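quick one
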Amino acid sequence: MLNGKKILYSGMQATGTLTLGNYLGALKNWVNLNEEYECIYGVMDLHSLTVRQVPADFRKNARALYALYVAAGLDPEKNCIYYQSHVSGHAELGWILGCFTYMGELNRMTQFKDKALRHEDNINAGLYTYPVLMAADILLYQADVVPVGQDQKQHLEITRDIAKRFNAIYGDVFTIPEGYISQSGAKIMSLQDPVKKMSKSDENVNATILLLDGRDSIIRKFKRAVTDSDTVVRYAEEKPGISNLMDIYSCVTGKDYAAIEKEFDQKGYGEFKMAVGEAVADELEPLQKRYQSLMDDKAYIDSMIKKNDEKAAYYASKTLRKVQKKVGLTERMF
Ligand code: TYM
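structure w/ tryptophanyl-5'AMP:
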């Protein structure tokens, strides 16, 4: 508990720009849950280092990510939005937790296996221990709830296992976090290959909607979305393209699948795709405008980063000191 409320913690990697998947699977839910919890959101720049970055672009992307969080509706005066790398406790707790994580557990992580396949020339130890750092992020802030997309479920499970293992030895040190994975939008698929997750690293630009794509580009990508040879707008396992578009439409309009099927009854795929494109463009337009004005206000973003970095460092140090003491590290004299 923090200020009388339960704690929500989440974050995104500061790599490239965000996709519609990041937005619908995570960011939009963060905004929806915002009032209910005391919220802490990280710009996960240390995690981004598992893939080689161009330093100047990386710094820009991290700042853009910060501004996108705010543009999406997270007020940095009320929420602790900070940079992971500015709080050294993440790396310190990460090390300690690594000593409570088994290689067998890490070997089972599907994201590691996928990423190792995609980055064969750089299968570094950071990629392997990525989930341990993620566990440190969450446990450092004693988070009760962690809203993420479906692809992070396994990382949340290992976080819970590590926390329980630690608590079983040293007493109730960590809060055991619950994942929050919403019904709709938790796994947005590629527009070009709807059995594959929408991802920023997709080589086909038409596969992914970026949060900063303009209206025309958004509509064009939806028009080109791969569907099937049927003509009926219906949610079904054998219709992954249409089902994905229905999922997206449902997330941005709030309509359920039955209502969507009714709305497009007797109408063709063309009309449906156009409606999805329009609805997504309408949803993103205000966010994009706010983003532009935030990026122009350097002093404001800087002051928010500073204030929240300090706050995060304070929360983190409380847990870290407790952990250090529990495992028997000698207390510092300074
Ligand atoms: P990242 O940057 O890969 O993803 C950020 C969030 O977006 C969700 N997501 C999706 N949701 C639905 N459909 C998609 N196609 C899609 N693609 C991505 C992800 O599930 C995630 O919620 N490891 C985390 C970053 C992280 C973190 C943490 C999160 C580091 N430490 C502590 C929570 C708590 C990640 O994968 O980010």
